[in-house]
Description:
Blueprint: E1 7-10, E2 21-24, E3 30-32, E4 37-42, E5 44-47, E6 54-56, E7 62-67, E8 70-72, E9 80-82, H1 91-94, E10 109-113, E11 116-118, E12 127-130, E13 133-137, E14 140-142, E15 152-155, E16 159-163, E17 166-168, E18 171-172, E19 178-180, E20 185-190, E21 193-195, E22 198-199, E23 207-210, E24 221-224, H2 270-320, H3 325-329, H4 343-347, H5 349-355
Parallel strand pairs: 1-4, 2-5, 3-6, 4-7, 5-8, 6-9, 7-10, 8-11, 9-12, 10-13, 11-14, 12-15, 13-16, 14-17, 15-19, 16-20, 17-21, 18-22, 19-23
Antiparallel strand pairs: 23-24
Amino acid sequence: DIGRGNLTISCGDFGSRDDNCLISGGQAHFRVSAESGEVRFEGLKFAASTFTSIIAAGDATSTAWFRDCEWTSNGGETVLTIYNEGANYDMLEESDLSSLPTLENPSMSVVLESCEVTANGPAHSTILNVGGRLDIRETLIQNNGPSLFGAVAAIGEAVVDFTDTCFADNDSEHPGVVYLGKDAMLATDKDSFGAQNSVSNSTCDAIFRAEDEDCFDDGCGSCKDFDSSACGLQSYVAAPTITPSLIPSIAPSLDASHTPSPPPPNGTDDNKFFEPIFIVGLVLSVLLFCCAVVAFYYYRTKVVNDDQAGRINAKRGGQSNGTNSSDADEFDLEGGDEETRPLEEIVGVENFRDEVPPQE
């Protein structure tokens, strides 16, 4: 509990997040109730609070200034709550934001400069401003929720200023990622940006202004777009989106006569089981075909060679008996009951050549 002003709480010598000063756990990390002064937080990281990380409980004479700070993985109701508790109310003891007493005096001011508020899961809203002033500059508020009132909820005579602030991927139930109550005011909206924010009960995913006291749907308020079409913060990384051209123009229909059969037990897939068998069979078939082609070619070559050899032997036999070529053609090439052998083998190569006279 910080009860006096003109105080600076800094991480390291230069107040930088790079020095990794982490404050984690507990219902809340700090309650600022100082009057007539300014409390500065520089380079701090806040995580894992179970109710709210920061309670800005002072009056309008006080200011809490956060520079280069980071909030992540906080749960509970909010990440930051601006509400003048006064002398007779203890927010941590009550732990119920739905029944806050009516303000007797305006709440304090809070400034967020060059901060990041990302990946928190508060149930009510990421930042709740009840009757105070919230000034957000060059800050990324991304991937928070789901919450009832989204990233920022301004209630009562609250004032909000946005400068170079980016709201992305936040999840809200009630209209608007930024919810402005009937008496709240958006004093500054310069270069604010919003993208891919989700609102479950509304078509307004930007800044919603309620026109009635209890207005939680589109019919009793108006929607305002963010000021800029691009985020100028280097820390902002857009979530991936589905390319519209890849979305089918006609939704697939289910024909009862072609209802797919249930999957096989134990999560097996018959197609995946038979695929390798089919591939192995195909490869073996190709190998067998190649072997058949080679065998056929070998057989044909052997038959031709044997036929030519037989004709040559028959011709030589015809010459040794003084027959002409026509008589050689009538030589028994197919063979009969006796084995046919070349004449050289029967007579003998040397005797055969010596005994055969040269023909004129």
